[in-house]
Structures are given as structure tokens and as C-alpha cells.
């Protein structure tokens, strides 16, 4: 059995994870409320709808040509204003991860990044990932045309490994009793980022600095945050891979016992079932999540600023739940609550006609954001021994990213063709199937339920930052 992690090292690493992941996710969420206007800008510049304007042969005009052919395959006429919705869904599927970013590419890259971190160390893999992230955002800063913007999404999709590596690091420094609350810390980073990131992105996008790229200011601030994160990780993050830390300790102390092979994890849930639940959940959830700015744009005429405030509200509620509720719940119970909240959100979005109804659905969405993925990561970590965590968590993320990749384009296709009510009703039916698997198929791993956790323990966990 591996020796316990020194409390001082654990506290230090948790602080580094929290700060770096917060910088990373705030940078990432800048673009979320901008997608409708951003895509509209590139379409107007390279493939204008007005036939009187000169038509150019560009990558975007070719993509829209394929979309028009796809649209013509349907028997009912579809208004061209929905082209932005479907184009956004296609981009979200091909090049996106949380709420539509670089998903299909991450489905390929995540297992590779995870296995490399198991072999070469978490720190090395994370710094290599950050180099790719810097290049990705730099391309966005220079994206005066759609082709360059597309390149930035591709590079980012192949290199993004921050979240899965932060999850592996958090698992490395946690025992079975503290793992759930440590995973909740990572979820809290998402929630805080969604509270401030979209609103900041919308605000920075209103500051014009480069005429050829009106979003250059937001992209430049995003680049600054990513570079700052990389420098901070280089100087502050120690290696946490147990086999490396144990080997270093054995070499310095001459302790043969420290070189012993780690014990295998006791299996409770199959990795296939966990991976499938992750895929199925994100297939429907990501479609709803990605369609939200387009739905508000269509239904209420929301601007980027109003979409930023809506996403900020989701982040605020989710962060409150992460800090006060999710970290105290067993992972499986957390997943079950989140999936049921997701079902409620789908049903509400199918019927709403008022802003108050929209924010009620957003509250359910925030509950889902605060619980499901965090809980599934924790459940998967219980099924993996320490020398395979990076790989197993990478595969879990890969299946999830496949769902995230397919969800936006499939959901926006249904929304585009059949309308909001049908799209969200079909999503509710799919999530009902996921809820059945979660309620009756998954089991609680030994050690994931805290017994006799008192106020002192909870207070100590809160002080770790």
C-alpha cells in the first residue's frame, strides 16, 4: 500500500491545481458567449448572404455550401438565419470541449495524454499540453479569417489536457476518504470560471483594438492568462505520479519497501459502464448546453453580454453548490442528483416562453454542471490503481469528449429542422435513459461514502486552500 501523502505537499499541490485550472478555464470560457456573433462575423466577411455582394471562394463558403446541401435534403423549408445555429453546432462538434470545444479531437488525444502522463509524469505532460494551448490561443489572436480560427481550434483540441491531468494529479494526492471532496475542488474551478469568464469575454469583445479581428482583445487577454498559467506551473508544480515520487524517496532514503508495486484497485463498476454513461450523458447535455446561447439569441434576441450574464449565473449557482453541497456527497449520489436535474432542465427548455422560465432551467443546468462529471471522475478513479489512473481517466474523458463532439451537431440539426420543442423533448427522452442506467446500473464503491464525518473534518477540508 502506498504511503500517505504529506499534508504540506497535498495542500501545496491543491493550491497550484486550483489557481492554474482557474486561469485555464476562465481563458477557455471567454469564447462561449461569443460564438454566435463570432461565426456571424466570419460569415458576413467571407460568405455574405446578400447576393448583391461579391462572393469569394473560401473555406467557410465551402462549409456553408455543404450545409446548404444538407439543408436541401429536408422536405420542409428552413430559414437561413438558422445557418448560424447549425454552423455553431458543427464547429462545436469538430473543435470543442466544455460547452462545445474541440471534442472529437480530444476524444483521440485524451487517452494518449493520459498514458504519457503515466509513463513520463504528470508535470511533463501538463507543460507539453500548455505549449499547445499557447499556440492555439495565439492563432485565435491572429484569426482575421475563418481558416486561421479553425486552425486554432484544431491545435487546441489536440493539445488540451489540463482538466484530465489536474484530475489525475488530484487523485495522486488523495486517499479514498478525501477523493470526492478533492474532485469537487476541480468542479468548483469550472463553476467559478463560468461565473466570471463568459461575462469577461463578452466585455473584452466589446473593446475593438484590431479592425480585422473584433475579437482580438478577448483573445489577447485569454493568451495572457494561458502564458501566466504556464509560467506558474513551471515554477510551482511538483511531480505527483506515485511511481516517480516513491522512486525518488527510495533513492534518497535507500528504502526498498518504497519500491513495492502498488496494490490493484478493487473493482465495483466496470470501466465500460462508466465510460458509456459519460458518453451518453454528454451526448445530450452538451447539445443542450451548446444550443443555449443560440436558443436565447433566437427566442429572446439575447446579445453576447446577456448570454454572458446567463452563463455567469449558471457558474455562480454551480460554484455555491460545489462548495457547500457536492463535496460532501458520495460520488454516486452526486451523479444521480445531477442527471435528474438535467432531465428537469430539458423539460423546462422545451416549454419556456419567459426569461424567468429560462433562469429556472439555468438553475437546473447549474446543478447538473456541479455534480455529474465530478462524480463520474471520482467513481472512475476508485476503479483504477495508481499506475493506471492517467490512462483510465484519459479513456473516460475520451468517451465523454466523443459525446461532446457528436452532441452539438446532432442537437442543433434537430433544433434547426424540427424546432426547439421537439429538440429538447428528444433530449429529455435520452437523459431519461441515462438516468435509468445511473439509478439501477451503477453501484457505490467501498470507501466512497464517508462515515462519521464531523464538523472538524469538513472544516479541515475547507482550509486546504
UniProtKB/TrEMBL annotation:
The keyword Transport applies. It is found in: Membrane. This is Major facilitator superfamily (MFS) profile domain-containing protein. Pfam families: MFS_1 (PF07690). GO terms for cellular component: membrane. The chain crosses the membrane at residues 12-35, 125-144, 183-204, 216-237, 272-290, 310-326, 333-352, 358-379, 399-418, 424-442. It comes from the Eukaryota. InterPro entries: MFS (IPR011701), MFS_dom (IPR020846), MFS_trans_sf (IPR036259). The keyword Transport applies. GO terms for molecular function: transmembrane transporter activity. PANTHER family: MAJOR FACILITATOR SUPERFAMILY DOMAIN-CONTAINING PROTEIN 10. Keywords: Membrane, Transmembrane, Transmembrane helix, Transport. PROSITE patterns: MFS (PS50850). Residues 13-445 form the Major facilitator superfamily (MFS) profile domain. It comes from Thermothielavioides terrestris (strain ATCC 38088 / NRRL 8126) (Thielavia terrestris). It is a multi-pass membrane protein. Its main location: membrane.
Amino acid at each position: 500500500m502506498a504511503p500517505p501523502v504529506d499534508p504540506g505537499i497535498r495542500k501545496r499541490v491543491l493550491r497550484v491545481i486550483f489557481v492554474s485550472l482557474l486561469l485555464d478555464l476562465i481563458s477557455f470560457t471567454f469564447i462561449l458567449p461569443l460564438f454566435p456573433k463570432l461565426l456571424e462575423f466570419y460569415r458576413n466577411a467571407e460568405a455574405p448572404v446578400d447576393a448583391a455582394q461579391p462572393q469569394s471562394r473560401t473555406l467557410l463558403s465551402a462549409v456553408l455550401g455543404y450545409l446548404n446541401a444538407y439543408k436541401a435534403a429536408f422536405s420542409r423549408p428552413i430559414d437561413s438565419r438558422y445557418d448560424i445555429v447549425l454552423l455553431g453546432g458543427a464547429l462545436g462538434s469538430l473543435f470543442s470541449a466544455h460547452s462545445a470545444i474541440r471534442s472529437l479531437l480530444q476524444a483521440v488525444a485524451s487517452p494518449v495524454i493520459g498514458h504519457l502522463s503515466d509513463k513520463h509524469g504528470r508535470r511533463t505532460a501538463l507543460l507539453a499540453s500548455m505549449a499547445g494551448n499557447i499556440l492555439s490561443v495565439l492563432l485565435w489572436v491572429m484569426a482575421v479569417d475563418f481558416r486561421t480560427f479553425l486552425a486554432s481550434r484544431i491545435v487546441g483540441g489536440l493539445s488540451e489536457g489540463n482538466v484530465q491531468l489536474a484530475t489525475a494529479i488530484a487523485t495522486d494526492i488523495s486517499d479514498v476518504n478525501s477523493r470526492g471532496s478533492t474532485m469537487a475542488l476541480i468542479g468548483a474551478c469550472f463553476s467559478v470560471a463560468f461565473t466570471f469568464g463568459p461575462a469577461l469575454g463578452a466585455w473584452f469583445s466589446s473593446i475593438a483594438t484590431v479592425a480585422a479581428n473584433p475579437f482580438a482583445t478577448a483573445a489577447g487577454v485569454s493568451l495572457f492568462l494561458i502564458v501566466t498559467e504556464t509560467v506558474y506551473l513551471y515554477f510551482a508544480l511538483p511531480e505527483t505520479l506515485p511511481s516517480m515520487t516513491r522512486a525518488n524517496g527510495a533513492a534518497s532514503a535507500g528504502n526498498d519497501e518504497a519500491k513495492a508495486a502498488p496494490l490493484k484497485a478493487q473493482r465495483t463498476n466496470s470501466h465500460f459502464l462508466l465510460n458509456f454513461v459519460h458518453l451518453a450523458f454528454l451526448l445530450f447535455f452538451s447539445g443542450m448546453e451548446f444550443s443555449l446561447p443560440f436558443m436565447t439569441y433566437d427566442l429572446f434576441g439575447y446579445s453576447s453580454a446577456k448570454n454572458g450574464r446567463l452563463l455567469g449565473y449558471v457558474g455562480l449557482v454551480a460554484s455555491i453548490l460545489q462548495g457547500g453541497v457536492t463535496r460532501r456527497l458520495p460520488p454516486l449520489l452526486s451523479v444521480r442528483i445531477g442527471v435528474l436535474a438535467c432531465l428537469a432542465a430539458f423539460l423546462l427548455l422545451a416549454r419556456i416562453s419567459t426569461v424567468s422560465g429560462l433562469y429556472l432551467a439555468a438553475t437546473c443546468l447549474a446543478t447538473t454542471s456541479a455534480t455529474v462529471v465530478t462524480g463520474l471522475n471520482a467513481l472512475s478513479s476508485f476503479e483504477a490503481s495508481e499506475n493506471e489512473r492517467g490512462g483510465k481517466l484519459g479513456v473516460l474523458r475520451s468517451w465523454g469528449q466523443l459525446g461532446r463532439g457528436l452532441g452539438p451537431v446532432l442537437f442543433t440539426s434537430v433544433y434547426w429542422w424540427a424546432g426547439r420543442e421537439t429538440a429538447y423533448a428528444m433530449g429529455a427522452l435520452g437523459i431519461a435513459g441515462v438516468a435509468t442506467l445511473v439509478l439501477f446500473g451503477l453501484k457505490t464503491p467501498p470507501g466512497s461514502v464517508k462515515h462519521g464525518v464531523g464538523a472538524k473534518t469538513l472544516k479541515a477540508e475547507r482550509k486546504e486552500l
